[in-house]
Amino acid sequence: MGAISESVASAIVSVLVPRSLADCVGVLGERPDALVLAGGTDLMVAVNESHRRIDDGLTVVAVNRVPELRSWTLDRVAGVVRIGAGVTYTELAADPLAGLLPALAQAARTVGSPQIRNAATIGGNVATCSPAGDGLPVLAALEADVELASASGVRSLPIAEFMLGVKKTAREPGELITAVTVPLLDGWQGYVKVGVRNAMVIAISGACLAVDTPSRSVRLALGSVAPTIIRVPEAERFAAERVDWATGSIDPNDVAEFGRLAAAASRPIDDHRSTAAYRRHSIEVLARRLLARAFEVNA
Ligand SMILES: Cc1cc2nc3c(=O)[nH]c(=O)nc-3n(C[C@H](O)[C@H](O)[C@H](O)COP(=O)(O)OP(=O)(O)OC[C@H]3O[C@@H](n4cnc5c(N)ncnc54)[C@H](O)[C@@H]3O)c2cc1C
Asked: Which of 19, 107, 163, 254 has the lowest tally of Cβ within 10 angstroms?
């Protein structure tokens, strides 16, 4: 394991660079308060803006040299893709992962710039748990599990139980997010977001719709309109009942009602990015748009 002591903005910190998952988890077991550093695209912003204190004696564990975190695997029998926490948006946005999880690829393509996408990881997005995190509505709609490892073992929990609030998660001190396990669905899926411009923009609102045709289910997850990502069971049930599954079509009035149900479920706030009213309106439009892409709308 590489270890260096560095001065970061006048504090003396130790930076450990483990080369294996076992070393990484071992370090976090000994120093549960150590700061995990992946791509640094959230963490360094937080440090620069003084939202994250760097005190003397802090240990930083840089995880980007841990090979187990950098890879992904497809299990066709179980019907899941296991994505290591250190997989970047650049990797998620390209085939073969993009072909397996198209909505996650769409979300990845909206994140930051090419430079950010090369460094930023899915694990960092999940750990930060911003209501505007673009990967999160997709993981919520696809009902992914988050895998966490610590000195006492490995546990896995549904993303809906992992995300507790604004930048608040069920991760315990000493735990490392090792992977997200994402079920493969058989049906259309997509992610859309609204921002003040087309690139380098944090979402004013975002939505993921995922259809599973064999189980005739429609899932809708919303970002930036509540303290954390929300699903919209009323809209999901409504759409599943109104879709003509034999023809893959839906009535335009039902598409409109789906949008209204999504807007009604959202609990947005006014902040520097947008008003609550605009967020609610944009969610209505995004939900409608997604459903109309997923199914043929009857003339
Ligand atoms: C210019 C810019 C544009 C951006 N645009 C977007 C955008 O459009 N959409 C979007 O969603 N985000 C955006 N972000 C935020 C950021 O890129 C993402 O949230 C990214 O996924 C964070 O990943 P990271 O690897 O850089 O995490 P880091 O910054 O390294 O870490 C973030 C947090 O997660 C913790 N952490 C990281 N990995 C692990 C792990 N394996 N286990 C436990 N804890 C861990 C860290 O301790 C830290 O608290 C942007 C950031 C910048 C600087």
From this structure: 19
Q: How far apart are CA 97 and CA 83, in angstroms?
A: 9
Q: Is the pTM of this model over 0.85?
A: yes
Res 4: pLDDT: 66
In ligand 1, the atom with minimum distance to the C-alpha of 177 is 42
The tokens describing 16, both together, are 């450990």
Q: What is the pLDDT of residue 9?
A: 56
Do residues 266 and 225 lie in contact, with contact meaning Cβ atoms separated by under 8 Å?
A: yes
Q: What is the pLDDT of residues 266-291, one digit of tens each?
A: 999 999 999 999 999 999 999 999 99
Cβ atoms of 166 and 130 closer than 8 Å: yes
| Ligand 1 neighbourhood includes 137 CB (under 6 angstroms) | no
CA nearest to 27, candidates 57, 61, 58? 61
The whole-number pLDDT of residue 6 equals: 60
C-alpha torsion sign, points 215, 218, 223, 227: negative
In tens, the pLDDT along 68-88 reads 999 999 999 999 999 999 999
Establish whether residue 120 lines the binding site of ligand 1, counting it when its CB lies within 6 angstroms of any ligand atom.
yes
Sequential DSSP letters for 126-178: HHH--TT-THHHHHHHTT-EEEEEETTEEEEEEHHHHEEETTEESPPTT-EEE
To test the pocket of ligand 1, the residue of 13, 27, 42 to mutate (highest count of ligand atoms within 8 Å of its CB) is 42
Residue 174 near ligand 1, beta carbon < 6 Å: no
